[in-house]
Write a structure and sequence with these properties.
Layout lengths: L3 E7 L14 E2 L2 E2 H11 L5 E6 L2 H10 L2 E4 L11 H16 L3 E7 L8 H12 L5 E8 L4 E3 L12 E3 L16 E12 H7 L7 E5 L11 H19 L11 E4 L11 E2 L5 E2 L4 H12 L3 E6 L4 H10 L3 E3 L4 H12 L6 E5 L5 H4 L4 E4 L5 H6 L2 E2 L8 H10 L4
Helix pairs in contact: 1-2, 7-12
Length: 400
């Protein structure tokens, strides 16, 4: 039996910056599941292990196709190193599988745009080119400054100073040596050397360049918001996420304002509200109903126009709902529908709790950035302008 190339994803449950971080969805997929997906897609990886102390993370990792190793409390605290988690996971994996790990990969799920090519790149540096260790890096051209905190003996030496440059001489970018930024996404280590040194860098280290546009580490809520905003741009060409088909979905649940409408309201002199809808969306909804899908409109607003539109389309309506996620769970229980077989389409932040429940969270093109980033798929059409007809074409075919 050949020595295994084992990808280890450390994913403990505790996180102070972003509570529940490793389960936070980006592009509709939890961070830990995104990392598992890319490691499993890497051609040189034998198996993928998630090291965790959290039952929810463990369940998500197994569903994504990883082997789960229960991390002991002694190496699951805030001060525990990633190296300790990888070493423990290697030993546990060898005990379970009876083989030997030849190369260990440390893959970080806090790098949401880690790609399979990054993983293969660091592994190839070790198994094909003879490096002892390898890591992903990206070109970096910034001027780095450091602010002095200790009083200087010479007054002129106080204050900020350049780290990678002389502040009295600012060469052009093309005249400076290229600096490379450690991305934090993927590392590979020869297993025997890693066990001996107990550190991810030893011997000959090779740098594997990656796309700088994909470099982002989620350490706080602002990083998570950026990742969700970037996901619709970076996921489609890189991850190639397929759109849902009829075999993936049993029910379609639709928000109303901003999804079935363009989010504008016209008010007449008597205070009555009028909204605009799209006839093509009506045709798409009718086709979904004929195809046997269970449909529901779920809206926070209490408005006669929502009920009137539901009657027109023959779609049940739940409106005036404060907790849409609770209402959605109850509706699915009442109808015997599995949440992972539900496509939920929305446009604003009050739809995010429902996005976290269903198998297919979908945002319309005009949705809030946080909603687009949390979606598994995004329509090309905006809300109220054919988005639902587009979703119907995903499920039933382009000739709809």
């Amino acid at each position: 039996m050949n020595d295994a190339v084992l990808a280890v994803i450390p994913a403990r449950g505790g996180s102070k910056g972003v509570p529940g971080k490793n389960l936070a969805p980006v592009g509709g997929v939890p961070l830990v599941a995104r990392a598992v997906r890319e490691c499993r897609a890497a051609r040189l990886v034998t198996d993928v292990v998630v090291s965790t102390d959290d039952p929810g993370i463990a369940a998500t990792a197994r569903e994504a196709g990883a082997v789960v190793v229960q991390r002991p409390a002694a190496i699951a605290g805030d001060t525990a190193s990633s190296e300790a988690a990888v070493l423990h996971a290697m030993d546990a994996y060898e005990a379970m599988r009876g083989g030997r790990v030849g190369v260990a990969v440390l893959a970080q799920c806090t790098s949401p745009f880690l790609a399979a090519d990054d993983v293969d790149g660091v592994v190839a540096a070790v198994v094909e080119r003879g490096a002892d260790t390898a890591l992903t890096v990206a070109p970096f051209h910034g001027f780095v400054w450091r602010d002095s905190v200790e009083p200087a003996a010479v007054p002129a030496a106080r204050g900020a100073h350049g780290v990678n440059h002389d502040k009295s001489h600012r060469p052009r970018r093309q005249d400076r040596p290229e600096d490379l930024l450690e991305t934090g996404a993927a590392y590979a280590m020869r297993a025997d050397g890693f066990r001996a040194h107990r550190h991810r860098f030893f011997g000959h280290t090779e740098l594997v360049r990656t796309d700088p546009s994909r470099v982002l580490e989620v350490d706080d809520q602002h990083d998570l918001a950026r990742a969700r905003a970037l996901a619709p741009l970076l996921d489609m060409p890189a991850a190639g996420t397929a759109l849902p088909g009829r075999g993936d979905v049993d029910a379609v649940v639709m928000d109303f304002d901003g999804t079935q409408t363009d989010d504008r309201v016209l008010i007449d002199a008597d205070g009555r509200e009028l909204v605009a809808v799209h006839r093509g969306d009506g045709l798409g909804i009718a086709a979904l109903r004929r195809a046997g899908l269970t449909l529901l409109t779920l809206s926070t607003e209490t408005n006669p126009v929502v009920a009137a539109r539901g009657r027109k389309l023959g779609v049940p309506v739940l409106h005036g709902i404060d907790r849409k996620d609770q209402a959605l769970k109850q509706w699915c229980d009442d109808h015997g529908i599995a949440l992972d077989r539900v496509l939920y389409v929305g446009n604003d932040v009050n739809d995010l709790p429902c996005f976290g429940l269903v198998g297919w969270p979908v945002a319309v093109a005009s949705a809030h950035d946080a909603v687009r980033g949390a979606a598994r798929a995004v329509t090309a059409a905006p809300g109220g302008d054919g988005a639902l007809r587009e979703i119907a074409s995903w499920l039933l075919g382009p000739t709809l």
